[in-house]
Design a protein that fits this description.
This protein is α/β, with parallel strands linked by helices. The chain is built from four helices and three strands. The protein is 41% helix and 13% strand.
Length: 90
């Protein structure tokens, strides 16, 4: 993996779903984060839906997350208005 041109490892939401219950998914998430740190790539946890998941991931030094807890999906027009320069979505 160290020879692949990657910048991020993404942790699938199926592993995030049960991490608060101490399942084997927690061990997998820890391993992915450790591997990302060892490879000097950022790790993104997807499917973060609760404060507990977000706090646990923060404690594991996962710096990036996406999911409903972070922000609900936006309609295209709302995304464009919020994130694109005024003249780019005309």
């Amino acid at each position: 993996m160290r020879n692949l041109p990657i910048d991020y490892l993404k942790i699938d939401k199926s592993f995030i779903h049960n991490i608060e219950s101490g399942s084997s998914d927690l061990a997998i998430v820890k391993a992915i984060i450790t591997m990302g740190q060892g490879l000097s790539v950022d790790v993104v946890a997807e499917g973060v839906e609760t404060k507990g998941q977000a706090e646990l991931l923060r404690g594991l030094e996962c710096r990036f997350a996406q999911g409903f807890y972070i922000r609900r999906p936006l309609e295209a027009a709302d995304f464009e208005a919020a994130y694109l320069p005024d003249d780019s979505h005309k």
